[in-house]
Specification:
The chain has about 100 residues and is mainly α. The chain contains three helices and no strands. Helix 1 runs antiparallel to helix 2 and helix 2 packs antiparallel against helix 3. The longest helix has about 30 residues. The termini are far apart. The mean pLDDT is about 85.
């Protein structure tokens, strides 16, 4: 049971990771992929919390969900401002500053 849940979770995590690597040009796809990765990590905490009979994983998962919700709200606000300024959500228009 545990191996099946973890294999699905690992598959979803790498799907989000590949979504970031393949769609680096569109801001909305990158945000959705980041949210998928955060939700997979939360699911991982919950699975191991139930398996180890420990409540701390579920509490930590609630904190991560709160941070993910705030990150999503800020990210979507930035995406809206970016769309209003540039007229598209393509990331190839963003200047990259290399230190």
């Amino acid at each position: 049971m545990l191996l099946g849940q973890l294999s699905i979770n690992i598959f979803l995590f790498f799907l989000g990771f590949l979504g970031i690597l393949n769609n680096r040009k569109n801001l909305l796809y990158v945000l959705i992929s980041l949210e998928l990765i955060l939700l997979c990590l939360n699911l991982n905490f919950i699975i191991f919390s139930i398996y180890l009979d420990d409540i701390y994983g579920q509490i930590f998962s609630l904190f991560i969900l709160t941070i993910a919700a705030a990150e999503s709200a800020v990210g979507l606000a930035i995406a809206i401002l970016f769309f209003r300024a540039k007229g598209s959500t393509e990331l190839n228009q963003v200047p990259v500053i290399v230190a």
